[in-house]
Amino acid sequence: MAPSTPARTLSRSPLADQVKDRLLERILSGEYPPDSRIVETQIARELDTSQAPVREALRALAALGVVEITPFKGARVRRPARREILEAYAVRSALESLGARLAVPRLTDADLDELGGYCEAMQTAARAGDAHLVAEWDARFHGRILEIADNQTLHTVWGSLEPFLRTYITLVVPGADPQWSADLHLPILAALQERGTEDAVSALEQHFAEASTNLASRWPDETAPGLDRPALGDSLTGVGTGPYHR
């Protein structure tokens, strides 16, 4: 049985996190397209909150490379450059290969059932044409492997790439195929089920190689204003940081 649908909101999370999640949903849905401004006062009114959590949420999104904050001009939505996404894929491939080496010896039957459930959920979402949900299950699948690896430093570094965001972004580029994306995870699952460490590592490396090749053929090559700036941080936050494939 496939796991239940991921919750889109977390009512008990800090207010700034909830605002960040709401803004991220709007950005990914296209309500706030690239280069559009996000006005703090307007968001605060819409969400019936003060500007402080909105400002904190925007800084968090800036740290992830989703928005760009310019002094005296405010925040605007940015679109990652193709090179940025491909570089993130390369780093994720290395990190997740290490994660697989650590995870395979620790795998239980329950873990494999859970990972299989995520793949089934991806297939269901893909058949429904729901790219957003495919991306959510995709991130859960990869994230669970890192959790099983049980290396907090590895998981923290991996999480800083915002795998869900990077995967989802690639799924909304023209020519994206949610079914292809869902199918791409089946060889990884098969290798894990056989508990073959090297096979699992090879499957993950192939996964990211194919995802990178596919993305490179579809991603716009032009660089929008601001995309030549580093994506891994913002001068207002000092925090370093992406769907996104997975």
Short descriptors:
single chain, mainly alpha, Arc Repressor Mutant, subunit A, Four Helix Bundle (Hemerythrin (Met), subunit A), three-stranded antiparallel sheet
Describe the structure.
The chain has 246 residues and is mainly alpha-helical. The protein has two domains: 15-77, Arc Repressor Mutant, subunit A, CATH 1.10.10; 82-218, Four Helix Bundle (Hemerythrin (Met), subunit A). The chain is 60% helix and 4% strand. The protein is built from eleven helices and three strands, in the order αβααββαααααααα. The protein has helices at residues 15-29, 40-46, 51-63, 82-103, 109-127, 131-149, 152-159, 163-171, 178-183, 186-193, 197-218; strands spanning 37-38, 67-70, 74-77. Strands 1-3-2 form a three-stranded antiparallel sheet. Strand 2 (67-70) and strand 3 (74-77) form a beta hairpin. Helix 1 packs across helix 3, helix 4 crosses helix 6 and helix 5 (109-127) packs antiparallel against helix 10 (186-193). The longest helix is centred in the middle third of the chain and has 22 residues, at 82-103. The two termini are 23 Å apart. The relative contact order is 0.16. Mean pLDDT is 83; it is low at 7-12 and 223-246.
